[in-house]
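4.2 Preliminary Data

To establish feasibility before requesting continued support, the project team ran the inverse folding procedure on a target of 156 residues. The structure was first converted into the token representation described in Section 3, and no sequence information of any kind was made available to the design step. The complete token record follows.
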């Protein structure tokens, strides 16, 4: 192989990039930033409108809440049913939860601090309502206590 002929072209400078070829291209951030002028999930969305940015934050928040709700869903917990229909419904719920989680992750990859905060808040609210013991029935606590091994008194 002749290594002398394998030259990479020089990187194009910003002066050679014309605004005429890509007039609507937004800069992609690689660090967290504050501001409503961002793109999240889709090209041009939410744009520069404050109302659309607020809608974007609400959508990301609820995607995280729904994802956490599905993660805590009884469909995903092992039960005594071994039918194929039960397995298919578990798979469908798991796939939906995973897809929503990836959408939230992609939204956070916009590096917009507001999007990051509402994603974390959405997961926290979702866990609080659907995963924590705050809203569990007392009968659920007894079932959990029965599954845990007896305490030896050591808290280490």
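Position-by-position output of the design step:
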């Amino acid at each position: 192989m002749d290594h002398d002929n394998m030259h990479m072209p020089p990187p194009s400078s910003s002066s050679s990039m014309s605004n005429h070829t890509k007039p609507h291209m937004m800069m992609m951030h690689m660090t967290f930033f504050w501001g409503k002028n961002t793109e999240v999930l889709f090209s041009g969305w939410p744009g520069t409108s404050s109302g659309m940015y607020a809608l974007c934050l609400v959508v990301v928040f609820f995607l995280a809440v729904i994802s956490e709700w599905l993660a805590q869903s009884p469909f995903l917990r092992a039960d005594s049913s071994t039918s194929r229909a039960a397995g298919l419904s578990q798979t469908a719920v798991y796939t939906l939860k995973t897809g929503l989680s990836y959408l939230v992750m992609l939204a956070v990859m916009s590096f917009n601090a507001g999007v990051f905060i509402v994603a974390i808040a959405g997961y926290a609210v979702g866990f609080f309502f659907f995963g924590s013991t705050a809203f569990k029935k007392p009968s659920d606590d007894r079932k959990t206590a029965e599954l845990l091994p007896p305490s030896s008194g050591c808290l280490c």
